[in-house]
């Protein structure tokens, strides 16, 4: 069984042609990308690295990491966004980037311990078994490699802001983008990471100010958050 929800794949596939429109439904991804890119690059300098972006979609993060000098493989199970990502890379002349339609679990069997950095951003809340994704990311990482995740906390505040506020009131995202039951508490994701043999090094909250319409990183992880993990070096 592939660890994917067909409805989720179809949902993002239908919007694929708008992925690189910075004023489309993907505007929040374009707005937060410099923040998450700089955070990743600050902990694990990307230049010259071999990097895997899991659940890459249309390639916003993958493309920016390649432009930092990394050799990037972006993977996803939604065909249309991958085609958009490939087309954008060709049109933009982005070098050192490749895209594949493959499950992260299958890639883990094929290429264990192959990547200096692994990213899995805004994906875990869209799959049936997020722990399986975390385990596969850990397998794919080289000893000493960094592994980065981002997702949404599961609590009343996250429901109010990420679903009611962002999807229905502010209409920053299409209604139905997120399913509250799939949100993950930081303690749950931390346990998934530790069970996969990763060390949790840093948690950062992603905050949105509706007055300035700007995002920032901070210490409050009540709604959106990012987690930096590291695979221990071999003894």
TrEMBL record:
Its EC number is 2.1.1.222, 2.1.1.64. It catalyses: a 3-(all-trans-polyprenyl)benzene-1,2-diol + S-adenosyl-L-methionine = a 2-methoxy-6-(all-trans-polyprenyl)phenol + S-adenosyl-L-homocysteine + H(+); a 3-demethylubiquinol + S-adenosyl-L-methionine = a ubiquinol + S-adenosyl-L-homocysteine + H(+). Pathway: Cofactor biosynthesis; ubiquinone biosynthesis. Transmembrane segments: none annotated. Gene3D superfamilies: Vaccinia Virus protein VP39. It holds the Pfam family Methyltransf_23. InterPro entries: SAM-dependent_MTases_sf, UbiG_MeTrfase. Keywords: Methyltransferase, S-adenosyl-L-methionine, Transferase, Ubiquinone, Ubiquinone biosynthesis. Belongs to the methyltransferase superfamily. UbiG/COQ3 family. PANTHER family: METHYLTRANSFERASE, UBIQUINONE BIOSYNTHESIS O-METHYLTRANSFERASE, MITOCHONDRIAL. This is Ubiquinone biosynthesis O-methyltransferase. It comes from Roseateles asaccharophilus. The lineage of its organism: Bacteria, Pseudomonadati, Pseudomonadota, Betaproteobacteria, Burkholderiales. The gene is ubiG.
């Amino acid at each position: 069984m592939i660890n994917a929800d067909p409805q989720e794949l179809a949902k993002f596939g239908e919007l694929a042609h708008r992925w690189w429109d910075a004023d489309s439904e993907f505007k929040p991804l374009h707005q937060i990308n410099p923040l998450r890119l700089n955070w990743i690059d600050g902990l694990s300098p990307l230049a010259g690295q071999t990097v895997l972006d899991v659940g890459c979609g249309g390639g916003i993060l993958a493309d920016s990491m390649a432009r930092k000098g990394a050799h990037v493989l972006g993977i996803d199970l939604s065909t249309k966004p991958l085609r958009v990502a490939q087309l954008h890379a060709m049109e933009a002349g982005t070098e050192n980037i490749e895209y594949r339609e493959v499950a992260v679990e299958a890639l883990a069997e094929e290429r264990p311990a192959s990547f200096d950095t692994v990213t899995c951003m805004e994906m875990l809340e869209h799959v049936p078994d997020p722990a399986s994704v975390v385990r596969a990311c850990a397998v794919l990482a080289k000893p000493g490699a960094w592994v980065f995740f981002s997702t949404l906390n599961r609590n009343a505040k996250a429901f109010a802001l990420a679903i009611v506020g962002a999807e229905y009131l502010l209409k920053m995202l299409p209604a139905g983008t997120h399913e509250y039951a799939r949100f993950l508490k930081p303690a749950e994701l931390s346990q998934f990471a530790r069970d996969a043999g990763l060390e949790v090094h840093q948690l950062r909250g992603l905050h949105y100010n509706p007055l300035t319409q700007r995002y920032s990183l901070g210490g409050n992880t009540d709604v959106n958050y990012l987690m930096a993990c590291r695979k221990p070096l071999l003894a």
